[in-house]
Amino acid sequence: MWKRFVDNPVYRWKTNKWSVYNVAYHIIWTPKYRKKVLTWDIEARLKELLLEKAKLLGIEIEKMEVMPDHIHLFVKADPTLSPAQIVAQLKWYTAHYLRQEFKELKTKLPTLWTRSYYIETIWHISEDVIKKYIEDQKKV
Q1: Which of 11, 26, 45, 67 has the most CB within a 10 Å radius?
Q2: CA atoms of 130 and 109, how far apart (whole Å)
Q3: How many structural domains is the chain composed of?
């Protein structure tokens, strides 16, 4: 029964071995002390790393915007991954590689990311609103 929904691109549902789901989050986090370090080459590499780790985790980054002092992500994930696991994995992976590749991050900050983050679950009705909000971040 569920197969016809999943195979049809009109439907937003995904499946795993145990469930049919549509789980999405709006996630925001900042560098330590909200320093404006996410620019130029660091921004470009951060985006690559986020997409790389998302693929390894099996999550989809639907929308992403990197501002100099914070990141917005709209992600869709398997329900077996907790939001805390997703954020922890993305932060760890990006901090590890960015601090190796950009030595100035080690001298400017004791750690790259703050411990905190903002997360909001998204209903399918507001997906477009969240995507538009993230898209418009750099226009402000």
Answers
A1: 26
A2: 30
A3: 1
Catalytic residue IDs? 133
Alpha-carbon span 19 to 10, nearest angstrom: 19
Strand duo 118-121 + 60-67: pairing: unpaired
- Global pTM reads 0.87
Q: Give domain status of residue 81, yes or no.
A: yes
> What is the token pair recorded at 14?
């995904």
> Counting every residue, how long is the chain?
140
Q: Give kind and range of the element (H or E) at residue 97.
A: helix 83-101
Is residue 9 a part of any domain in this protein?
no
Residue 109 domain flag: yes
For residue 97, what is the domain's CATH number? Answer: 3.30.70.1290
What pLDDT does residue 1 have?
Answer: 42
Which uninterrupted H or E stretch holds 118? strand 118-121
Q: How confident is the model at residue 11 (pLDDT cuts 50, 70, 90)?
A: low
75-89 pLDDT per residue, tens: 999 999 999 999 999
- In this structure, are residues 109 and 18 in contact, taking their beta carbons and an 8 Å threshold? no
